[in-house]
Write a structure and sequence with these properties.
Layout (H helix, E strand, L loop, with lengths): L1 E6 L5 H7 L3 H12 L4 E8 L3 E8 L6 H12 L12 E4 L1 H11 L11 H16 L4 H20 L9 H13 L6 E5 L3 H13 L3 E5 L3 H10 L3 E3 L4 H7 L2 E4 L10 H9 L6 E5 L17 E5 L4 H7 L1 H4 L2 H23 L15
Parallel strand pairs: 5-6, 5-8, 6-7, 8-9, 9-10
Antiparallel strand pairs: 1-3, 1-4, 2-3
Helix pairs in contact: 2-3, 4-6, 4-14, 5-6, 6-14, 7-8, 7-12, 10-11
Amino acid sequence: MFIAGLSHKTAPIEIREKFYLNPIQQDLLLSELKNHPLVMESFVLSTCNRVEVYLKRADVSVDSSFVVSLIAKIKKISFDFDVNSYIYTYEGAGALGHLLRVSCGLESLVLGEKQILGQVRHAVERARESGTLSRHFNLLTNLAIRTGKKAQHETAIGHGGSSISWAAVEMAEKAVGNLQDKSVLVIGAGKMGEIALSHLHDLGVKKIFLMNRTGEKAGDLATRYNGIAASFWNIKEILNEVDVCFCAVGAPHYILDKEKIADIMQTRQGRKLVLIDISMPRNIDPQVKTLGPQVHLSSIDDLHEVVDNSMKKRESALAQVEGIIRQKILEFDAKILKLQNNPHSDFFRAPRVSG
């Protein structure tokens, strides 16, 4: 087993967004891996905070350079910087331990993040539909998902807020104070946008606008969370009114550029506008930060300020989760030993993770 990837721990957002793989690109990469004679099984995990390629390989020539070159080919780009300074690799027992830590939320920006388990599950389902999972990775990924569930259900690792969207709402409160008497715009009705809506609704925010490419979905979510579905055609008027804007779209380009925000600020009569971009790739031009102190722009990488202050509540659960991971690794070892004793199995058992 071999992993090559990068995450918020090794690469800033401007590097991660270059590697980010949308669903179509993930399918293309899986197709390339399926057809390669030295790749036996694979799946791909691409989120706002990590891109990781998991492989069962037949030869060590399938390395990080191999993975990076395939990503560059799929995205039709070239990397004009030292990629190796951002990429990490794991193999054998280290790869197994890393996957379980990821599934439990121990490698997330927000410790104990619950969404990562669903993202792992979706990555596995995509690989299964693409035909890149077989006997051993089916066993491996099922173990990872069960381990993540056990950690969430039996420990306090996900106590309280445990998502990027939650951290974004916390940051907004830090910037403008209590949100109850504020007006807020959420752009994007995907999973992150919906979680943000849920937090804002629970806080009793006075007025919530929701914009989405699909008007029907925006309408349904707006109804559920006491919000107002709005059209992109009215974005300038709404941004002139609101105090905070959360952007969770994931479009391949900036939907709010410096010029548009500059125009809006001219009509706000000095009122602060807080913009929090939790999209991957980013959808608000980072140059917006240069417009002056009344414009507050944050991205995913800025959320560590909020996250660091809340982590102490979950640190007590770390030992429990690490214990669960060790137990699951022993279970996996036992199952692999059983497969090894089967003469029809071609799996090479990696050494056991220590500790």
